[in-house]
Design brief:
Layout: H1 2-13, E1 21-25, H2 30-41, E2 45-50, H3 53-67, E3 72-76, H4 82-95, E4 99-104, H5 119-146, E5 150-155, H6 168-188, E6 193-200, H7 209-215, H8 219-229, H9 238-249, E7 260-263
Parallel strand pairs: 1-2, 1-4, 2-3, 4-5, 5-6, 6-7
Helix pairs in contact: 2-9, 4-5, 5-6, 7-8
Length: 269
């Protein structure tokens, strides 16, 4: 009886991602790394892409050692521009298999607080946070549809849900990504591709801004801020974003379309 229950539980929890190819833009560290890990744990095949070839290859080797060479593929290039995106998607399908899911997770562009933002900084933020997301959606969604359907996922931020004091270009572009996602979902569902967004809160990982804040000279002040602002009284982890992503990319989320899901420990009010 116990073995039968265990088998049923395992069957019930299966996300149905085994050997499905998921393409991740921005996968070598942080949230992208966490998403890739969660997908690999669910049996998916993951196409890792990022700009930095050395860090990307280190990530590919790490995952290949843990999950098998056949489960990972990588492509280094500029995933903010159409040329790099199109080349990566085409190479993935040719070498790795038909894409059934994709994640737009290209990282933020540095920008100062306030209005003193140059045209170059503003344009850099647009390309990094918004244009890259649209360009991957434009390249990826028709392919996912042609391959039998699946899911496309944007990674946004709670800075796009409320004014939190972040750089203007960051909050503005993340809010635009949220709107882009819900707008695309209005018609992409008819092509058998669900489109959703995760808006992470304060996610801590090696090399990230929150590690510097949490261990720097104002660490105590930041710890108090987290306890005050986040009901769960802690930072989030890349794996917590990754597990949410794996669910939204899977058939278990088959009636979720056009959602913006805050994963922030309850910070957003």
């Amino acid at each position: 009886m116990a073995s039968m229950i265990a088998e049923k539980l395992e069957e019930h929890m299966d996300l149905g991602l085994t050997d499905k190819v998921v393409f991740i833009a921005g996968a070598s560290r942080g949230i992208g790394h966490g998403i890739a890990k969660s997908l690999l744990e669910e049996g998916a095949k993951v196409a890792l892409t990022a700009r930095g070839a050395e860090a990307l290859e280190a990530t590919r080797k790490e995952f290949a050692a843990a999950y098998g060479e056949g489960k990972v593929w990588s492509f280094a290039g500029d995933l903010t521009q159409s040329e790099g995106i199109n080349a990566a998607v085409e190479a993935c399908e040719k070498a790795f298999g038909p894409i059934r899911g994709a994640v737009a997770n290209v990282g933020l562009s540095p920008s100062p607080l306030g209005l003193d933002v140059s045209d170059e900084e503003w344009q850099g933020g647009l390309d990094q946070n918004l244009n890259s997301a649209f360009r991957l959606a434009r390249a990826g969604i028709p392919r996912i549809s042609a391959n039998g359907g699946g899911s496309f996922l944007f990674i946004s931020s709670i800075a796009g849900l409320a004014s939190l004091g972040s750089p203007l270009i960051y909050g503005a572009t993340k809010a635009a990504v949220n709107h882009l996602s819900t707008s695309i979902a209005r018609f992409s569902g008819k092509t058998n591709v669900r489109v959703n967004t995760i808006a992470p809160g304060n996610i801590i990982f090696p090399g990230g801004d929150w590690v510097r804040n949490a261990t720097g000279p104002r660490a105590e002040a930041w710890a108090k801020w987290i306890k005050r602002e986040v009901p769960l009284n802690r930072f989030g982890t890349p794996q917590e974003i990754g597990d949410t992503a794996a669910f939204l990319l899977s058939d278990r989320a088959s009636f979720i379309n056009g959602a913006v899901v805050a994963v922030d420990g309850g910070q957003t009010r």
